[in-house]
User: Fold DNA-binding IclR family transcriptional regulator from Phytomonospora endophytica.
Amino acid sequence: MGARELNGWDSAAPAPAVLRAGAILQALAEAGGRPLSVADLAKAAGGIPRSSTVNVCAALVSTGLVRAATGGFVLGPGLVGLSQAYLDALDPVREFATRTRRMTPIDETLQLGTLEDGDVVYLAIHGGRQPLRITSRVGSRISATCTALGKAMLAGHTDERIRELLTERQPFPAYTARSITGIDALIEAVGETRERGYAVDDQETTDGITCLAVAVPGLPEATQPFAVSTSLLTGHATRERVETLVGLIRDLVSGMGHA
Assistant:
């Protein structure tokens, strides 16, 4: 394919069958492992005709992306290889894995995330010696508005850009009584993040848990942002421990953006 063809992809008409396949995969992902019947899939995927749903599922089953199960269909093992290939292609993910393997073990868990459509998407997790029971897992997503990872990455945007991205999503999800739910409060919190050089989630996602995050520096302009965070019990978040963990994360992310 020539450069002209590559540059003109945005003018192409999306193939309906591929769009339907994507909608079906998304519906199965949101089902959380529960088999969906053809009728349920057709409805969950946006009202696709049942005959088309059957045909698309047959194609997805043949490629291993979907698996037939009792009661309908579920995601297939073929997605694992695709997911890993996507992660392997991201330099920060490779660097995070390499650097966390070499570092001295710590009690806290470290997490690498990126920003996508106003959400934090978790890309890699390195378990500590005493990991907390956190809900994040690779591939999961959560609103960027109340997470340290999200605020660390949003700090790389101007306030105007943050308003463009998130104003229409108000009120933001409230996971605890401390969660930020409005754009003005978010802008203020992001400003504080820029000033101190790292982001803090003070029980905004989970009661009793404090999170700290630092954005990956040195990324090429206009590329997706990345950040690394850690979580600890709020009662253990002393000034000394916070300074130590922030320093550790800064050392970890240094060079990840241009490795």
